[in-house]
């Protein structure tokens, strides 16, 4: 397959799955049992993997398939092979050495090896250094002894581990020569390739129901002194030689590379979920009429209420703005990864800092936005068939997995305060933090000027970062580092989010300025940007007064400006969501179909309820009448 960008891959696969003999026909899964749902989603995930294979995609393109637009259709209850595709395969590609890649990859691609990424334990997820699974090297047998010291160190959460995977990349504390060497990845067979039974010493199973995505097939895993050959430690970065001598990786956190990649992918993908939710809410807000009839005798379309415009329209603008910045992050990741593979890790700290704060900002914004969009659909938004609950469950999981958001924002803050204090290597040209070492942009604030808003967002970021850096510095003189850090946690998180917001708006400003193909498109992008900026100010008015140079009068003007902009955007709402180019079957919502035939669809989906099969369900007689209540 020729190289395509992510959006082309998504469109291409979208049309392929809609016409694929094993994928095109869907079933409603709401009334299936846990086991039936798993079987249905697994068989579709497998058909999808075959399709990817037929398409001849390379590993980089496989990760693009993660697009929620496509995977939400193929595996509506969660893809049991997602972690295989998005974490296991990339970990092998990036952390196994060339010999190991050639040893395993054939079996991975012919489906003999199905894997997961087993890092989190019952008692440790965030604090990776605290993981307690051990891998102790024995030079005599040239094996590692993998062991779970007690139940709190059981691996817990890995996707696909429950009943699907037969291999895992296990992150464990390495010991050689009696010395702890930190967390390292090991390729471990956990189930027999033929029988799929757990191998000796392995205890494995599924962890049970969750808020959503119940067929991700998350699992638990314990090791009772399982012997793993030396050649199964992934050795692209660190090495253990036969005699037990140990070679350190070129970068201390080289083994955390998969997490950086997945954070970037999650940020991109959560915007897909927001686009779907925004399309559903926009279409429903046009169809739905309710209230005192107007002069034309019709009840108003709910989108004509100002409050409804505020609930829906800023999130459509956010789709455009966040799509652009996450796409830029993806490009940046691709570039830095190739540098790191070539041995140059100079750009890694900033990539890590940016990936952490964008993953956090995007998943937080998108999950809040999807919930607001769900509420904007009133009672019907609460129906499973609206798809909005599942979209929320998907987006909010992204706020926790792959690094809990607060924790990731603190990683970004750590980088920012070091930059502000000059204790980090100076940023490279084009870095996203150069503004911290320059005087603040003093462009005066003016409603109607996107450049003035961007400057104000920059002043907020700069003000937040420099203020907390100074507070931290002062506290460090009087108390231990951990206490000083803890005294500033809330402000550090706010500083990292402000930095993330500045990154996002600068990237979009560039997109708008570079758009030259059509004046009309540029004007529309400007309008979307203005809505996003005015909404951002309205959500953080205190910050814009405290750090951004806005006066209370500017704040009042901005509130009015935002409402005017929403009225201006309102006639474009449907074209702007149609432009996401989401076929009805990929949207899969009673409220969000293109033809707006909402009420017929709602009745149609109710007909699937098993409680409607008989006029009087047997359960009624069994449970109520017999109990003579
Ligand atoms: C919170 C973390 C980052 C702390 O890690 P720790 O080892 O304790 O950090 P230190 O305090 O020792 O060192 C900080 C130091 O290291 C740099 N750094 C940290 N991470 C990276 C990285 N990935 N790449 C480059 N550099 C990194 C950091 O910048 C500091 O540098 P200094 O120069 O300032 O010293 C860590 O524990 C962590 O990442 N926790 C989150 C755990 C997590 O994300 N788990 C994911 C599990 S898999 C999953 O959830 C799958 C989901 C399914 C799906 O995605 O579908
Ligand atoms: C759907 C799903 C799928 C997952 N898939 C996988 C997988 O495939 N593989 C895998 O290995 N893992 C997986 N995970 C696990 C996931 O990565 C962890 O749950 C996540 O990293 C958060 O860690 P935790 O659960 O330890 O949260 P905790 O760290 O216990 O978080 C609880 C609270 O403590 C706070 N907190 C913790 N540390 C700090 C700190 N230093 N400073 C300030 N506040 C702090 C957090 O902010 C949060 O409010 C999955 C999780 C989910 C929900």
UniProtKB/TrEMBL annotation:
| The keyword Disulfide bond is annotated on this UniProt entry | no
Task: Provide the active-site residues from the annotation.
Answer: 402 (proton acceptor)
The record's InterPro entries line, in alphabetical order, gives:
ACOX_C_alpha1, Acyl-CoA_ox_N, Acyl-CoA_Oxase/DH_mid-dom_sf, Acyl-CoA_oxidase, Acyl-CoA_oxidase_C, AcylCo_DH-like_C, AcylCoA_DH/ox_N_sf, AcylCoA_DH/oxidase_NM_dom_sf
Q: Tell me which cofactor or cofactors this protein depends on.
A: FAD
Q: In which pathway does it act?
A: Lipid metabolism; peroxisomal fatty acid beta-oxidation
Q: Which Gene3D superfamilies match?
A: Acyl-CoA dehydrogenase/oxidase, N-terminal domain (1.10.540.10), Butyryl-CoA Dehydrogenase, subunit A, domain 2 (2.40.110.10), Butyryl-CoA Dehydrogenase, subunit A, domain 3 (1.20.140.10)
For the Acyl-CoA oxidase C-alpha1 domain, which residue ranges apply? 256-417
* Compartments in which it is found: Peroxisome
Q: Which SUPFAM superfamilies does the UniProt entry name for this protein?
A: Acyl-CoA dehydrogenase C-terminal domain-like (SSF47203), Acyl-CoA dehydrogenase NM domain-like (SSF56645)
The answer to whether the entry has keyword Flavoprotein is yes
Superkingdom, natural source:
Eukaryota
Q: Which is a Gene Ontology cellular component entry for this protein? A: peroxisome
Q: Where does the Acyl-CoA oxidase C-terminal domain lie?
A: 450-624
Arranged from A to Z, the UniProt key words for this protein are: FAD, Fatty acid metabolism, Flavoprotein, Lipid metabolism, Oxidoreductase, Peroxisome
Q: Its principal location?
A: other
Question: What's an example of a GO molecular-function annotation for this chain?
Answer: fatty acid binding
Q: A single GO BP annotation from the record?
A: fatty acid beta-oxidation using acyl-CoA oxidase
Q: Where is the Acyl-coenzyme A oxidase N-terminal domain?
A: 8-113
User: Where does this protein hold FAD?
Assistant: 120, 159
Similarity comment text for this entry: Belongs to the acyl-CoA oxidase family.
Q: What is this protein called?
A: Acyl-coenzyme A oxidase
Annotated source species: Amphibalanus amphitrite (Striped barnacle)
**In the record, what lineage is assigned to the organism producing the protein?**
Eukaryota, Metazoa, Ecdysozoa, Arthropoda, Crustacea
């Amino acid at each position: 397959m020729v190289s395509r960008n992510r959006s082309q891959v998504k469109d291409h696969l979208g049309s392929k799955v809609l016409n694929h003999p094993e994928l095109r026909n869907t079933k409603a899964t709401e009334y299936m049992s846990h086991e039936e749902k798993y079987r249905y989603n697994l068989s579709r995930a497998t058909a999808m993997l075959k399709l990817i294979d037929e398409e001849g995609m390379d590993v980089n393109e496989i990760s693009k398939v993660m697009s929620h637009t496509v995977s939400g259709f193929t595996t509506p209850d969660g893809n049991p092979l997602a972690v295989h595709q998005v974490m296991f395969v990339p970990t092998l590609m990036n952390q196994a050495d060339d010999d190991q890649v050639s040893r395993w990859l054939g079996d991975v691609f012919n489906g003999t090896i199905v894997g997961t990424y087993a890092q989190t334990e019952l008692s440790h997820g965030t604090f990776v250094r605290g993981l307690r699974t051990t891998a102790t090297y024995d030079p005599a047998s040239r094996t590692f002894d993998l062991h779970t010291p007690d139940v709190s160190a059981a691996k817990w959460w890995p996707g696909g581990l429950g009943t699907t995977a037969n291999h895992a990349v296990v992150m464990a504390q390495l010991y050689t020569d009696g010395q702890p060497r930190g967390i390292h990845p090991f390729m471990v067979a956990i189930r027999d390739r033929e029988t799929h039974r757990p191998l000796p010493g392995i205890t494995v199973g599924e962890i049970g129901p969750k808020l959503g995505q119940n067929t991700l097939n998350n699992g638990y895993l314990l090791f009772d002194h399982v012997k793993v050959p030396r050649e199964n430690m992934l050795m692209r970065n660190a090495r253990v030689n036969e005699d037990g001598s140990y070679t350190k990786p070129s970068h201390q956190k080289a083994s955390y590379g998969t997490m950086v990649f997945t954070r970037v992918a999650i940020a991109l993908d959560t915007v897909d979920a927001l686009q779907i939710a925004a399309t559903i809410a926009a279409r429903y807000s046009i169809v739905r009429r309710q209230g005192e009839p107007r002069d034309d005798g019709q009840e108003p379309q709910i989108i004509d209420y100002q409050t409804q415009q505020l609930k829906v329209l800023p999130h459509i603008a956010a789709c455009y703005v966040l799509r652009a910045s996450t796409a830029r992050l993806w490009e940046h990741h691709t570039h830095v990864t190739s540098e790191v593979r070539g041995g140059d890790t100079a750009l890694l700290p900033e990539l890590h800092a940016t990936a952490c704060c964008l993953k956090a900002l995007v998943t937080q914004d998108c999950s809040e936005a999807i919930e607001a969009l769900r509420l904007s659909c009133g009672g019907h938004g609460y129906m499973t068939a609206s798809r909005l609950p599942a979209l929320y469950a998907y987006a909010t999981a992204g706020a926790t997995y792959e690094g809990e958001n607060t924790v990731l924002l603190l990683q970004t803050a750590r980088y920012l305060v070091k930059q502000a204090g000059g204790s980090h290597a100076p940023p490279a040209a084009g870095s996203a933090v150069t503004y911290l070492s320059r005087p603040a942009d003093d462009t005066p604030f003016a409603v109607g000027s996107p450049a003035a808003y961007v400057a104000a967002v920059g002043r907020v970021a700069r003000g937040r970062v420099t203020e907390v850096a100074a507070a931290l510095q002062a506290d460090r003189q009087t108390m231990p580092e951990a206490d000083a850090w803890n005294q500033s946690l809330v402000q550090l998180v706010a500083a990292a989010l402000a930095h993330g917001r500045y990154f996002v708006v600068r990237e979009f400003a560039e997109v708008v300025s570079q758009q030259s193909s059509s004046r009309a498109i540029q004007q529309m992008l400007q309008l979307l940007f203005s809505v996003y900026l005015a909404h951002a100010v309205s959500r953080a008015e205190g910050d814009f007064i405290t750090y951004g140079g806005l006066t209370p009068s500017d704040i009042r003007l901005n509130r009015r400006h935002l409402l005017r902009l929403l009225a201006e955007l309102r006639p474009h709402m449907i074209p702007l969501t149609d432009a996401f180019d989401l076929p009805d079957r990929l949207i899969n919502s009673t409220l969000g179909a293109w033809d707006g035939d909402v009420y017929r669809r709602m009745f149609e989906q109710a007909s699937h309820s098993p409680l409607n099969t008989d006029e009087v369900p047997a359960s009624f007689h069994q449970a109520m009448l017999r109990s003579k209540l």
